[in-house]
Design a protein that fits this description.
The protein is an alpha/beta fold. The chain has one domain: P-loop containing nucleotide triphosphate hydrolases (Rossmann fold, 3-Layer(aba) Sandwich). About 55% of the residues lie in helices and about 10% in strands. It has helices spanning about 15-30, 35-45, 50-70, 80-90, 95-105, 130-150, 160-175, and strands at about 5-10, 30-35, 75-80, 110-115, 150-155. It is globular.
Length: about 180
């Protein structure tokens, strides 16, 4: 069974995480893990609550584990439990213990933190387009990246610049 290197693409809303994950997957001809929350929230006929965040977290990790079985060398993860941790703490003032315990078990070989330098793209599932909130969340994600102990880098610029920088970082951190 393959044990691929896992690259986490982390960042606030509307910062190009899914695009970068998809572009990297195409470049490396490897799978990527989409954001489970999108599918889950699209099917919800009400506003999400605290318990939904636990379901989303478990769904995300299940999807990541399934996709890891199909990867040869590297798996690109569009988000992880850190997103659930930040949203849960921000919206509900607490984080489910399972999320925190599972965070301690997950290992990523590199975190690519997507910057807020891309224009906001409106989407019914996104909640905080205000520049000060985008900066606030970026700081939260950067803090979690530092605390993770995993190598991490901030990714900025245009789509092509982000892809090029990410490929260089992946080669440097994982394959040299």
């Amino acid at each position: 069974m393959p044990n691929p290197k896992r690259i986490l693409i982390l960042g606030p809303e509307s910062t190009g995480k899914s695009t970068l994950a998809s572009d990297l997957a195409v470049h490396y001809d490897e799978p990527w893990v989409p954001e489970f929350a999108r599918e889950y929230l699209d099917m919800l006929d009400r506003e999400y609550d605290y318990e939904d965040l636990l379901r989303i977290g478990k769904g995300q990790m299940d999807l990541e584990d399934k996709k890891a079985k199909t990867a040869q060398k590297v798996l690109f993860c569009d988000t992880d439990l850190r997103v659930i941790q930040i949203w849960s703490r921000h919206k509900f003032g607490e984080v489910h213990p399972w999320i925190l315990e599972e965070l301690d078990k997950r290992v990523y070989d590199l975190i690519l933190l997507t910057d807020i330098d891309l224009p906001w793209q409106p989407d019914p599932l996104r909640e905080h387009p205000e520049p000060e909130m985008r900066a606030y969340f970026l700081d939260q994600y950067a803090d979690l990246a530092v605390k993770s102990g995993f190598p991490w880098e901030k990714i900025s610029g245009s789509r092509s610049q982000r892809l090029e920088k990410s490929i260089d970082l992946i080669q440097t951190h994982l394959f040299n």
